[in-house]
């Protein structure tokens, strides 16, 4: 008879007496390997762990479909609020409904994909307090990959799917002259925005190495940041706009690329190069999040459990 399927990803072998009493390692396995080899192994480890959770979820397909539909409907209510707002005005900060729908869709899609792929990283604080992070550290797979794939749920697809529907409508309704660079900026914006939010998820999670379970700080930059990006930069103070350009680079998720795509003036008067700089901002965010994660691992002292 086949062994029953387990939903615990990347299960480790029971520890020996010597392993149980030793302090767990705080360095990632294979740290001496080349960068591309480490990256490939990290992605593969994430996929193996996530696939286990997907297999578990697909055992109850009717429940999965109902939850996905419920997620689609729930997230659609945010856009309904914007539509109702435009029943009382033609413009918001000088922007039309299709233009704001474009902002809404790109920000929501980026947040949704980041939440789907690495959103479980915010559970780091619980792992630290329970001592179960030590278990991840002694497995032959990157701890960050395991953490991000923890309880991976396809139900989170509801947010990005709903965003794609709004994006399709906005692109059809926009009065824009589509040049080659504007066409290319749309997929670049979606990918880089997802990477930026993903880096914020990971970077915010690492704060919990020092402050314990403090994921609400992270949520203020992820969910709060996405809500900010639903609206045009022209309705906010220039100091706030500058803060999300040169501080936490949320403006590179959609504000700055959208200025070029929608042919809008920059409220800060920045060089045009900033409107194409989302890949640079995404790379810097990933580097910063990676450095923060490694610093957190070095500072972590396990429970020995």
Automatic annotation (TrEMBL):
Source taxon at top rank: Bacteria
Signal sequence extent: none
Entry keywords, A to Z: Membrane, Transmembrane, Transmembrane helix
A Pfam family matched in the record: ABC2_membrane_6
Transmembrane feature ranges: 64-86, 101-119, 186-211, 240-256, 276-297
Entry annotated with the keyword Iron-sulfur: no
InterPro entries: ABC-2_transporter-like
Keyword DNA-binding applies: no
Region (Disordered): 1-25
Protein name: Transporter
Native source species: Kitasatospora aureofaciens (Streptomyces aureofaciens)
The organism's taxonomic lineage, starting at the top: Bacteria, Bacillati, Actinomycetota, Actinomycetes, Kitasatosporales
